[in-house]
Predict the structure.
Amino acid sequence: MQFIDQAEIQVQAGDGGDGIVAFRREKYVPAGGPSGGNGGRGGSIIFKAEANLQTLLDFRYSRLFKAENGQRGGSNNKTGASGDDLIIEVPCGTVIYDAECDRIIGDLTNPGETLLIAQGGRGGLGNHCFLSNRNRAPENAFPGQPGENRFLRLELKLLAEVGIIGLPNAGKSTLISALSAARPKIADYPFTTLVPNLGVVRKPTGDGTVFADIPGLIEGAHTGAGLGHDFLRHIERTRLLLHLVDATSETAIADYQTIQQELKAYGRGLSDRPQILALNKIDAVDDEELQALLAEFQHLTQAPVFTISAVTRANLDILLNQVWKGLDAIQAAEKAELEVLVSG
């Protein structure tokens, strides 16, 4: 399945049906009077979050979505049929922007959540609505109102609690394949991963936690260099960042600082997100060199620093324990903050 996380579309709600001019002329019914019915309401455009969808691929080839128009009114005061609403299913985590003013209209994160995007037009009034003591035979009716027409930009931001970040070839795909059932493409050259990969990692309690393997970032990613903004956005929803550094790199410290600078330059609070640092590929590093590098990182950052090997699975259980503790601490802090807001 092709991973598409951006799309631009046009939505057109249905027009309301026209009201009509009609008069009741039936045998044995004297002075029938006006009987033109109202037009039906046009169908609306509604977005719905669907848990089974993982990509915006459906919007790559279909750009125009239009709901049904309402039917015109009928004689004998019959109201025209309303147009059916058009329900558009999108993946959970889809942010909907007004493409013309770049304003967020809605953010669908929970399965089954819905959002009215474009309102269908109201049906026009038939001539029976204009009957009065002064006008016993009105010959005017109103046309239906047009439905809303909008140009939208859709962005999918993956929903994951833990985001695995790092430079290309740091071993992120190998790590997520070791921790979960995910099977991303793995090779010994940079930019092997071109799309985010999701994997579910089981806690000791049996609950599943979603990890996201974010494709390798490079210097200047916040300006669009490399994979740039295409995948930085997927880190925004994560609660904890697992920063992977290649311990075999001759510039490991600079590699770490590059990612930190990109998070800070991108903004949106990413640089303040809780992090865990893991030095990967320790199976290929001399113990003395590893201890020296570990000491440098512990002096450089306040984040917990661990040494692991995704290939041999060395120390992965220790790393996961720290991840669970970090998520529990974040959840406790969020709960305490919510209690303060409620009590205040």
Remarks:
- The chain is about 20% helix and 25% strand.
